[in-house]
Amino acid sequence: MALLPPGFQVAAGYRRSWLVKDVVAGVVLTTLLVPQGMAYAELAGLPPITGLYTSIMCLLGYAVFGPSRILVLGPDSSLGPMIAATIAPLIAADGDPERAVALASLLAIMVAVIMTVAGLGRLGFIAELLSKPTMIGYMNGLAVTILVSQLPKLFGFSVDADGVVGELAAFVRGVADGDVVPAAAAVGLSGIVLVLVLQRWLPKVPAVLLMVVLAIAATSVFGLAEHGVKLVGELPKGFPPLTLPTVEWSDLGPLAAGALAIAVVSLADTISTATAFAERTGQEVRGDQEMLGLGAANLAAGLFQGFPVSTSASRTAVAERAGARTQLTGVIGALLIVAMIVLVPGLFRDLPQAALAAVVITASLSLADVPGTVRLWHQRKVEFTLSIVAFAGVALLGVLPGIGIAVGLSILNVFRRAWRPYQTVLGRVDGMPGYHDVRSYPAARRLPGLVIYRFDAPLFFANAKTFRDEVVHLSRAEPAPRWLVIAAEPITDVDTTAADVLFELDRLLDERGQLLVFAELKDPVRRKIEGYGLTSEIPPGQFFPTVGAAVDAFRAQDGQEWTAPAAAELPEAASPPGRDVSSGPG
Length: 586
Description:
Number of helices: 21
Helix content: 55-70%
Distance between the termini: 54 Å
Strand content: 5-15%
Structural class: mainly alpha
Radius of gyration: 30 Å
Mean pLDDT: 88
Low-confidence stretches: 567-582
Largest sheet: 6 strands, mixed
């Protein structure tokens, strides 16, 4: 059983009592899948029908290989601009829908390959390349990008411009030149208001479906096409055959770069959504299997004229509220879409393009996290700055450079914390066991001749000099300490560069009659130090299992008593204050 794909395992244990709930949830879900699928296809610069093809195949693919019983995959507002940014430069100047579809389909297959290889290689940690602050900034920038790109369609005209600034300027010029189609603007703006009001006050009402139905009705009643409103038109009838997309060799490089960026965003979105819903349903999140499920969904979409997909939190929430129990909900939704495009392809013929723009814009508003940005400002200015830089990268440089900036900032932020970690001196606090940060407890007592120093990071090439400089600084205090005890519990690694620094540091202190002592050094780190040959310079007698044991050994040798520090003895802060951590009893 364990060797079977997750979908077969669910089918083997399926309960009859789930069937009605899954079918009902599938019907409800379809009312959201169809208009959003068409809208997000146009957001990606593709024909609306491709959004329906994509929805069908990704739901079926994930139903077999996806581990979550509740997640709903499909075209996504966060991926649309990334797809458009990848394929738009590769399409001929006069536009070619068939070439655009081929490029998008191959892009989905590339994403599938990346996801599958990463899943088999257990590389689920890739999702962690985007930190929360940079992801907030990226999504805020994406929301602005989508909003600006849809404004001309919302008002019934089109512009020829690139980038947020260029598109916004072109939109303003179009409005000033009288290009606005009043009927289209009325439909689009009314649609936005209706969806937002219903989502806020009547969340159980299918807001998007109701808005789409009313827009189609308005087309018939008021003859909107005669007033210059562009309509979706008749969708192609039937389902596309299995198709292997063909593109030029020169297209592969740009497509691969776009696929990698899409894979990172899609995986991060899927893992975060899966985690949120798993906590509510009692399921366990399996990151590597999620990657395989995403790979299968993207492969299925790419082979049938679709484009890359991701998890949708909004559609998943709709399915959950409707009572979904398994992925049969998605299968029902896929079958209903197939029935629609085969039997009634003209169902959305009279849907105004402005209504699709309203769908996309309301979705983009849900991407923005203004409260989260404000919270970063109040909680941590550095991470707020990272968020704003990521936002500016997307808004000013474009979606693909923006995701590169977001990933780069996340990695640099991790490196920054390891390069300049929190470090402090520890002392005794009356009435509290253990040894504590003297910045948090300025009245903490010290032992004359002894310094207890804590460095809160692994020791490696980038921060070894920082560690050395601080130890040397502490060793030059007056009166000079005889022992410098390293509270080494937070030091989870020592690389060869840091080992050489420790060797030189110990020799320098020995020449000055001072002793470098280690306490609470983890066994794996101790074994590495021994492997580097460092114990030939630093004998076993300078390693203690606890800080308390090191303190006891020093007191047994010198007979010192704990004393309150003089004001001049208080250390200067080497880094911003952090959470105080006790270093054990003593």
